[in-house]
Design brief:
It is a single chain. The chain contains 14 helices and 2 strands; from the N terminus they run αααααααααααααβαβ. It is mainly alpha-helical. The protein has 2 domains: 155 residues, UbiA prenyltransferase (Tetracycline Repressor, domain 2, Orthogonal Bundle); 111 residues, no CATH class. The radius of gyration is 23 Å and the shape is globular.
Length: 339
Amino acid sequence: MTQVAARSVSSTTPARTPLGVLHRLTPYVAIARPDHWFKNVFMMLGVLLAGFYHPQRLADPGIVVAIAWAVLATCLLASSNYVLNEILDAPTDRSHPVKRHRPIPAARAMRSIAYVEWLCLAAAGLLMAFAMNRAFFYTAVSFLVMGLIYNVPPLRAKDQAFVDVLTESVNNPIRLMLGWFTLSATDIPPVSLLIAYWMIGAFFMASKRVAEYRFIADPIAAIAYRRSFRHYTQEMLLCSIVFYVTLFALFLGIFIVRYHLELILLVPLIAGLVGYYLHIAFKQGSCAQNPERLYRETGLMIYLATLLLLFIGLMFVQVPLLYRLFNVEPSAVPPLWQL
């Protein structure tokens, strides 16, 4: 009788199948947002520039492994910030028509386990960063610190109008430095480029705010979702976009004149990119709200790929006529070809 009862109980107890375990882990993978890792492509400009200024590093047989290691470390650090963001944003995400379905607001993931995940991802990312070099490690620490400033009370910069955009977009130059320090730990990227990178990031973030504001289409609901909307209007956001783009253009111009004048030929295309992205931000249900979905904008992806190829090509050449026209001294970095 006992054996029959035991068999009966065992037959009604669900087995821990690999599929069941995977189902329970899925929400915790989701809050790490691996689909956002593509944003770390911003560090590749740092890798490219460091390669141009320190070409001897490109001959290192372990360079591919080093770049892959750096990218993975950056992805883990970014995921740590995303997990913290998910935990602390859960109360306000419940007021968003889409984000309320995220794992923590929807009660599919436990906050206590998510906190452990946040710490483990940060520790793993920092250990990998420490194995790179000191400059890379300190920059990785700053990446995590900015996540704390952005998300954690009482600072919680994301709740302050304009401060939220400027704080979040600092991650752009941080990513560029992570890419640069992957190849060179003895100097830093041009400050003019870092500021330009910061300002174009602010433009992207402000465009995201415009898209969110238009999507929610209810000022009260918008404030419940994001406190900074208490002070934002669509007009204010558009004025801030003009401000960020102006600063981006100014510091990009300084970088181009100081380091590689040939890049001035890209300026019309870069201006076109800014206008194109703003056009996307004003679309109904714009992908600018969720940059991880921008790959769906086929035209934008083709435009970016073209811009990248032209940038790389122009970095290899020198056009003496441009230096005579603009009365600029050539950079000390020699090109491969002259036109």
